Structure formats: C-alpha cells, structure tokens
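User: For my dataset I need records formatted as: sequence, then structure tokens, nothing else. Please produce one.
Assistant:
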Amino acid sequence: MTDAAFGVSGRRILVTGGTRGIGRAIAVQLARAGADVVAGYVRDDGAAESLVAELSSEGSRITICRADLTIESGKQRILDSIATGPLSGFVHCAGTGVHRPVGELTLRHWDFTFALNLRAFFDLVTSLLPQLGTGASIVAVSSEGAMHAFPNYTLVGATKGGLEALCRHLAVELAPRGIRVNVLSPGSVMTDAWNSFPDREARLREALERSPRGRLTTAEEVAYAAQYLCSDASAGLNGHTLVVDGGQRIRG
C-alpha cells in the first residue's frame, strides 16, 4: 500500500522542457516509474530523439512534441498531442532567461522571459483544465531566485517569484476540482543552463561553499521529488513549495 501511494504507473503526464536538463531527468524518472509521458521541447531534435530511443529501448512510454509555447500554434500542438484522453499531471520545466545587469535589460528581454516562464504556464493550465480531473497534479519548477536576489538574474528571478505566487492562487482556485498545484524548487543543478551565466564559475563556487554536503544537487534528486508530487503520496500537499537543495538555502 505504501509503495503504491508513490506510484505513477498508468498516469499520463505532460512535462514541458522535458528533453534536456532537469526536465529530461523528470521525464525519464516518470516514464521509468510507469507513467505515459509526453515531453515538450522547442529545439534540439537530437536530444529529444535520444531521449525517446533510450526510454523506448527499456520499454518505457514516452512521446515528444516540438512546440513553442509562447505562440498560439505551439500551445495548440501540445494540446493536440495529449488530446486522446485525460491527463493526470502537468510538470512545467520549460524556462528561459536573459542574464545581464539591470542596466542592460530591455522590455524586449522582459517580454521574452515572461512569455515562457510565466505566461505560457498560465495559458497551458487554463487550457488543460478540461483534461485535468480529480486527483491530478500540477507542478511548476521554480528556483532559489524566486526569493533571493542574484547578479544577472533579475528577470528570471522575477518570473520565478511570479510563478510561485500564481501557483498559490491556483492551488486555492483548483482545489474544489480535486486538482493540486505545487512548486518544486531545486538547488543548484549542473545543466547546460549554467553556460548562459557570465559569472558561471563564481556562481558554481559559491553554490558549493553554501552546500552542507559539499556538492551540487543532482537532477535525479529533483526528479524523485517530482514523482512524489505527481503521486498520491503527496495528496496532502497543495500550494506548497518543495525545496530540494540538500540544505543549501539554510546557509543563506
């Protein structure tokens, strides 16, 4: 009974940004745990095809959908890819950002960052409501920047803060429908996203110094938490931000 509560076997779960980095780890974990995963992505066909080949060879169920969620046709492509039945979960890992000092940021950068990180999430949630039934789980992937300020992170941090606030409101609004909404906030995870930071090496050193374990969080650790939030074991969590950082944030 206890093991069953953590299971996601037979559930259909959409993972946006699901072919690279943290999103890929989540898609892999959910698929290996028996879920029928749809992984959305916007570029890098090679990474997407490699993911399908890996999981298909294991007998796990996954399909991919290339779609730009910031435009209507992209959203519709995602909706078409899951139109065959109800959806048990939606994990929003898709994200982007411009990492520059405030004085170098423009409204174009603002619109670019908010369009995917926040607006697309809201748009998808409202569009998916007819398919999300009782017991469904929505998970938005945030970051420490939602609460703490970092250099060159202004716009991304603002979207993550907005994402967490939005999820709290959605959690209350959707609870009567039997839908839970939670936030998953990873610590520093080594992914390709680090390559976009101009102060990459300094940031990594600082993250390691703050970690009580002396290492970064792994994508797999985040993926285990995502499965938990998509399972019945987390039925009592709604409007919660689950931090998976090995204690990094405790140290300021």
